[in-house]
Amino acid sequence: MSSLTVALLASLAYFISYSFNWLFGQCMLERPIIVATITGALFGDITTGIILGGILEAVYMGVVNIGGATAAEPVSATVMAVTFAITSGLDQSEAIALAIPVGLVFNSLFPFFLVLGSFFQPWYIKVCENADTKGMTPLIIVGWFFQYL
Q1: What confidence tens digit (pLDDT) does each residue in 96-107 have?
Q2: Where do the structural domains in the chain lie, given as residue ranges?
């Protein structure tokens, strides 16, 4: 499998898990057990995905964002751990050791992703002022896509 294919599949797993969770109303697609299963299925090794997902679920089970404090981001950590475990043949303990720092790095990048979504604000205001309900849906989908891409 080429590096580009691996990167695209990992990005697709992250996009499905993280963005669909918000699109469909907090349906818990961002939990590590679900993310790892999706990632494992995309890479063709669902067993490794489920095993690593169970381990990472135990790690992130008590991690909750309270108030303004944010914890490590579990979606990116899980996707990267499962991706490296399947494609590079990492041991489970090595993949878990990789997951936590990746989650912390992605957590610090999250505010920049929110800024991307705010660029669509003038168009949202214009559509709302004109009461254009048919224009709102495509605008929401395009803004959602760019924010979570």
Answers
A1: 999 989 988 988
A2: 3-110, 119-149
